[in-house]
Design brief:
This protein has 69 residues and is mainly alpha-helical. It is 45% helix and 0% strand. The protein has two helices and no strands. The N and C termini lie far apart (69 Å).
Amino acid sequence: MKPMHSLHRTNYYLLITFFALVGAVAMPAADSATQLISPHFTPPPEFAGQLGNYRSPLLFNDGSRVKSA
């Protein structure tokens, strides 16, 4: 008969293996998630390419350029 601590260790490893397999099977593919949300990362056609007339963040208020950060 096996000692009790050995049975606990075996059960622990079986549970870890079980949950790893269930997680791998239940997890959706990364490609499907990417395809699902990718349309939300493009601007609407009426705003595409319109970035606005913004001042460069690399200019000080007096107009001089930032030389180091």
